[in-house]
Automatic annotation (TrEMBL):
Its cofactor is Zn(2+). It is an enzyme of class 3 (hydrolase). The keyword Transmembrane applies. InterPro entries: CarboxyPept-like_regulatory (IPR008969), CARBOXYPEPT_ZN_1 (IPR057246), CARBOXYPEPT_ZN_2 (IPR057247), M14_CPD_II (IPR034224), M14_CPD_III (IPR033848), Peptidase_M14 (IPR000834), Peptidase_M14_domain (IPR050753). The chain crosses the membrane at residues 1160-1183. This is Carboxypeptidase D. Residues 336-350 have a biased composition (Low complexity). GO terms for biological process: peptide metabolic process; protein processing. Its EC number is 3.4.17.22. The lineage of its organism: Eukaryota, Metazoa, Chordata, Craniata, Vertebrata.
Amino acid sequence: MHGDEALGRALVVRLARELVAGWLRGEPRAQRLLNGTDLYLMPSLNPDGFARAEEGDCGAQQDLSGRENARGKDLNRSFPDQFGAAQPDLANVPEVRALMEWMRRNRFVLSGNLHGGSVVASYPFDDSAVHKTSGVYSKSADDEVFRYLAKAYASNHPIMKTGTPNCPGEEEETFQDGITNGAQWYDVEGGMQDYNYLWANCFEVTFELSCCKYPPASQLEKEWENNRESLLTFIEKVHIGIKGFVRDLVTGAGLENATIAVAGIDHNITTDWFGDYHRLLVPGTYNITAAVMGYLPVTKVNVEVKEGNATVVDFSLQPSIAVPASDPTQDVPLATTESVTNTTNTTDANRTTSFHQAIQPEEFRHHHFPDMEIFLRKYATEYPNIARLYSVGKSVKQLELYVMEISDNPGIHEAAEPEFKYIANMHGNEVVGRELLLNLIEYLCKNYGTDPEVTDLVQNTRIHIMPSMNPDGYEKAHEGDRLGIVGRNNSNNYDLNRNFPDQFFQITDPPQPETLAVMSWLKTYPFVLSANLHGGSLVVNYPYDDDQQGVATYSRSPDDAVFQQIALSYAKENARMFEGHPCADMYPGEYFPHGITNGAQWYNVPGGMQDWNYLNTNCFEVTIELGCIKYPQAEELPKYWKQNHRSLLQFIKQVHQGVKGFVLDATDGRGILNATISVADIDHPVSTYKSGDYWRLLTQGTYKITASARGYNSETKTVKVGGKGAVQVNFTLTRKDSKVEEGTVPDINMVGLNGTVTKEFETLIKDLSAENGLERLLLSSSADVQPHRYRSYNELSESLRGLNLNYRKITNLSSLGQSVEFRHIWSLEISNKPKESEPEEPKIRFVAGIHGNAPVGTELLLALAEFLCMNYKKNLAITKLIDNTRIVIVPSLNPDGREIAQERDCTSKTGLTNIHGKDLDTDFTSNSSGAREPETKAIMDNLILKQDFSLSVALDGGSLLVTYPYDKPVQTVENKETLRYLASVYANNHPTMHLGQPSCPNKSDENIPGGVLLGAEWNSHLGSMKDFSLSYGHCPEITVYTGCCYFPSAGQLPTLWAENKKSLLSMLVEVHKGVYGFVRDRHGQPVSKAQIVLNEGVKVYTKEGGYFHVLLAPGYHKIHAIAEGYQQQHVKVLVRHDMASFLHVQFDTDNKIFGLPRELVVTVAGATMTAVILTACIIWCVCSIKSNRHKDGFHRLRQHHDDYEDEIRMMSTGSKKSLLSHEFQDETDTEEETLYSSKH
């Protein structure tokens, strides 16, 4: 607080580190403190002053340098004071203003203010009414509590507890027990500790930690030892006294701002948001009263408070009077001790009905886009604890598609809490839903914490509200429109509710940006229930919206009963809707029993949004028509709110019907992502979210529910579903065939992460893999880049050199080779040790510009390189990614082609090839004898054939999708699941790619499921870079097509960067998954060049140090480790979606020959050799005898010279042929083996 009193700053930082480290180590005290306390540590309230202070300045010369803030103000003399003559001017103390606001937002219970200049604990009050310099004991109402707290610190400090600090110049100063009343020591007007006590619920003590204000760093360790136990003990004292809840006796809702009064102590505290409170008290017996306006007070007598943890004292207050709706924000007066000490306990006999009235919306008007935008920002700003405003995309005219999230933890998916959404104004001239949803936002925000119904909804549901899906159309529509169509469609004149992919009909209209944005949004969040608000009738319409014949007939979905139930829940609360005769003057014959209808039975709607929700996500959606007039006059809007607001709330509650729960792995208890929940006789499964949590809407009844997941045994349970809330049904699945194959192999250990990856980094990868993990990374990044122009070869070279010169410690720029026209093919490595070999770190490469006419990828990779460098040591996540990854960026593989390509040329092939006219993506052949282009040779020899990459991403243009190997036509693609998975990771992190509708000119009807395709199915050709990378570099490569236009205008680059940035970063996260580990022999020596065979096909080889890493899709995989002279090892490993699995393979020497024990083989071989030698000797002796007897015959045989030569020639030819055949066969086997291993 005083910038030159620096010891407390250092101790707080050390305290934070020690607590977190202790918690991670499992130390009971640290875990108890952090698990049971919300602990806030502020190392510096006056960083400006600290910057001016000097180490070693002990303050002996009364030098105030650094004590005050940058405007010369003492912060500990600047707070409002009970004895002050006037309110302080806060204009020059922004630090004080910030702290007061911080204290207002967080109802702290206990606080310590760390100072320097003496060694003593000082407690309130800090000044008195007479403001005598010293000697006046200014006693607070809680003097006994403050003395107890001060002693808790002082008694554990070796110097403070003596009461004799012996500070230079003040050797005679003593403090009994090491504590003092502030004003008795010296008068401090405007101090912080008194403000805490008087204007907040917080008890604060000031601790002077050392005689020297800014001790040298060499003394910090000693000071930590002096203060460590005191700091921890003081934190623990936040748990003394009493605690509990104050609730409404009728509804059970917590009562905020209820007063907690203790008889005999003239100092009250108030309850927090949920009626919770903590009141510090020393051991003793007390009478405690709880009171709040509108309720009868309750007193609990003879409450015993003991040493240690707080005594729990809960209160239930009986409502007494109505809360005036006209003044909902009236302050609750504090109850004085006199007014409550003689009250008696209320009893159940006096219970009355609550008269609480919810706060209704105050203003009803039509909100045009600027007005709506301000309205949404206002509520997001005023209610940040429950409201979050975000956009899912933009309209044709670039208006934001805003969504307001209402939740008690906005921005966070809470496991087991369902997600709900409302969408309105899909047709721009149907405006009632737009205004109702704005009213609903206001209603939820203003009533949260006071209205039990709203509070319960917000605390147990994550609610997303999109007031306008078609803001462009709304701006064209006009007030008073009854049946018109002006503004119905978007700015491209397409009906958005005919624009979604349909199960029965091919939608030929191009997907609109609003449609694509909403589809992407629905794939991002695990919505369970939804309603789409329209106008033009008065009915709830449920799926299906069309049928195969395209005629008006009942089109039943598998969940017809559920849809009827949720539709009725809305209609029953709207009396006019429930009657079923909505628009008698316009449609006299129209009748909807109970106000609901099957969509197709009413009329056919191909391409509707509600059916797409049901068929493509876990979400059940209905369409609600809110009134016969599409754009009513503004004065009619209150009537619509009155008719619908109960329906809107009741419909949200339906998200809590049916069953819910978790699907867990029996081995480790982790949730299983994308497990399937199926209900017998209902052909509509749903899937689990990232924590294994799921929700499945069902009507009342008994069901057989099965949970299944790839690699696990399924489990079925019989469940009875009632009508009051969802039934919790958890499944625990065991892994299929989880034992090690071919016997137990104790030397292969799958361990948590005992390899090179730290627990901290593992946690980071998990966090980044979680929902919105990458979004949070991007939001927290301190700097971003905005590519705005295309760079020529010279400019590209200078940009890369600039990155290398400005970020020398993490970059290394090199040339892989030169193009035909002698332009360098640059490679930029980004790593914390860019010039060192780190085989244990995964290596990823990004390559662009193989086709010079598609330079978007080049600019995206330059932007990625700069983004990473700029955020290194500024963004923690990016820093850790760079520290643990070797990133290689090759922005332009075909610089010659790029130089002749033309901007805004979307279809031209100019620049596609190199100067020799060769398409480089057909030049990566296995024929080593053939002449290759220099560009191809450069990347093959200097990158791909190094065989040290785990993943490669190539950027191209001409469509919007990701392809995976192979580009050549093959009958089977081994490891296809992993290759497709890697491609899907990129596509799923792109806002529109995963929707699978590139909508390129001349291919508007193209549909690519998930935005991912096998290369050969997209553009089949030989000699591609990704095929070569996989076959010969043992590295999977995906090709990303960034857009339909090869060379779009530079003005589109910022949008393209925004669209691809998250996907590019997702690859940096994904490369840290799969399986990695070490191969060593039994003596601990690494085994390099060992084969790691995956799923009996794909092969990788260990690097130096015996290290290996391979990416695999989540699920079970077979792994075989093979090395010459060692026994083979076999194991199954489970690969997760959010972390890597570590394997330590230890080889034993192979003691078998031909599958038999070595000793047996050696014995048999020895005996056999002996027998052979003996037999040979006998034959030689016999032959010698015979040859001596028939010498003449032998000479005669040799005299047949011609016959002899013919025979020799024949034998010779046959031998050569046999030898050649043998050699050829060996080469073939070797080549086949090479191809086999490299294919995978």
